[in-house]
Amino acid sequence: MKIAVVGLGIIGGSYCKAIKAYTPHTVIGVNRTKSVAEKALADGAVDVIGTPESLGEADMIIFCMYPQACVDFIKENGKFIRSDAIVTDAAGIKTALCPQLKSLSEEFGFTFVGSHPMAGKEKNGFGASDENLFMGASFIITPCGADKKAVNALASLALEIGFGTIKVTTPEEHDRMIAFTSQLPHVLACAYVLSPSCPNHKGFSAGSYRDVSRVANINSKLWSELFLENREPLMAELETLNENMNKLYTAIKAENRDELAALLERGHSVKQALGE
Amino acid sequence: MKIAVVGLGIIGGSYCKAIKAYTPHTVIGVNRTKSVAEKALADGAVDVIGTPESLGEADMIIFCMYPQACVDFIKENGKFIRSDAIVTDAAGIKTALCPQLKSLSEEFGFTFVGSHPMAGKEKNGFGASDENLFMGASFIITPCGADKKAVNALASLALEIGFGTIKVTTPEEHDRMIAFTSQLPHVLACAYVLSPSCPNHKGFSAGSYRDVSRVANINSKLWSELFLENREPLMAELETLNENMNKLYTAIKAENRDELAALLERGHSVKQALGE
Hints:
Oligomer: homodimer
Distance between the termini of chain A: 39 Å
C-alpha cells in the first residue's frame, strides 16, 4: 500500500516511523510546515513528501491533525482523495467529529473509518515521535458504517505497527470512556500542579507526585479543543469525581476513621478486581 | 554497626536487604509474626532474628511500623535500647509522631532522629521488599533536636543504601509537603477509580489512566491512619485542589475556551518551570 500521513506531529510522525520500521508500505508525508516534512524525509520516516494534490496516490490516508483542522482540510482537499481509499483520523474525540468526516466521505466517495491510537507522551511535535510509540497500546476503531473490509484493513495495519489491542466501538461509547480514562486525568493533573506547594516539591516527592502531575505538561490549545468537543461526558466525570472527593474530604474532616477506611477499601477493591 | 530493623514489611524488608547488599553492617530483624522473620533470615535479608530484649545490641534502630504501633512498642521496650543508640522511624507523618518519639528518647536516654524514606510500591509486606527500592529516592530527615553526629550517621547510611537526595526539614514542613506530594495523590486515586466507568476501562486506557489510578491499590488501614494524623495539611490541599478543579469545570461548562486554555497553560508552565 501507499499510505499518506497528513500532519507530522508526535502521532503522525510515529505512524510514519512505525510503518517504515515494521511494514513494507510506502509512506507519503504531508505537512503544512515544509521544514518538518523535510526533516521526516531526511530521517527516513517518509519515502516522499506529498501535497494535498498527491493524496490521489494513496490507498490509505491517516489524518493526524487537530479535529477541526482535519475537517477543514478535507473540505478543501477531499476532491483529491481516491474513491477506493480508506481514510482515518487519529482524534481523541469522536462524537463531534465522526459524523462530519462520514458526511465528507459520502460527498467525495472515499471510505471513512474513525480511529484513535491510545498512545502519546507529554511532549509534542515530530521530534517527540517514535517508531515504538504504539507498542502494546490500544487502537480504538469507530467504524461509523464503514464495511468490514475497510475496518479489517485498518485493524491489520494497527497490529502490524505494534498496537496490542483493537477495540471496536461507537463514537458515543468512545467519548464517554475517554472522558474518564484520558481527559479527566489531564484536567486533574493541571488542577493538581496549581497548588502553591507544587514549585517546592523537590526532595519531598516520589512516584505519586510524578504520576499524577505528568500529563500537566499539556498542549493547552489541543486539549482545550478536545475538552470542549467532549463537554458533556467530561462534565459528568468531573461531577462524579467531585462527589467521591467530597465523601473522602468529609470523612477526613469528621475524623471518621471507619468511613474513611471503607472508602479507601472500595478504591482498593476496584483495582484488585481489575487485577491491577 | 549492628542495625536493628523492627517491622519487616515492604519498607523494613527493603532496609534489611539494602543494608545487606550495599554495606558491611550486621542486620538484626525484629518482627511480630515469626514466620516473616524466618523468611527474611532464609532470604539472607537479616543476619539474625532479634527480639525486643535484643535491641540492646543495636547501634542503630530503624522502626518500620504503623505510627501508633511504633509509639506503643517503644513505650514498652524502650528500656532495652542502649543510650548511645540512634533510633529512627520511617513514618509518612511527622508532626503527630516525632514529639512523642522525642519524649520517649529523653525518657529512655537514646537519640531520636525522625526520617521518612520517600519510596514505596502499590504492594505491601516483606514479599514486596526490594534491595533497590530506595535507589535514587529522597530521604527526608527531621532531626527534632538530635545532634549533628547522629543526623550525619543516619544520612550516611541512607546514601550508602542508594538514596539519591537527603532533605533535612521540620516535622511541620514535612507534613505540609507530604500532604501535597503523596497523600493528595492517594486520595485522588481512590476517588478516581470509584467512577462507574472504571471497571470498563480496558481497551480505552493508556498511561494517563494507569498513572492516576496506580496508588488506588492502597493499604486502607495504614493510609486512613496517615490521613487522619495529618488532617489539617491534607484538608488544605484538598480544598486548594477543589478550587482549581472548579475553575476548570466552570470554564468547560461555560464553553469559555480562552479561560480554559489559560488555566491549562498555567499547569503547563508550572511543569515547564520545574523542568519536568
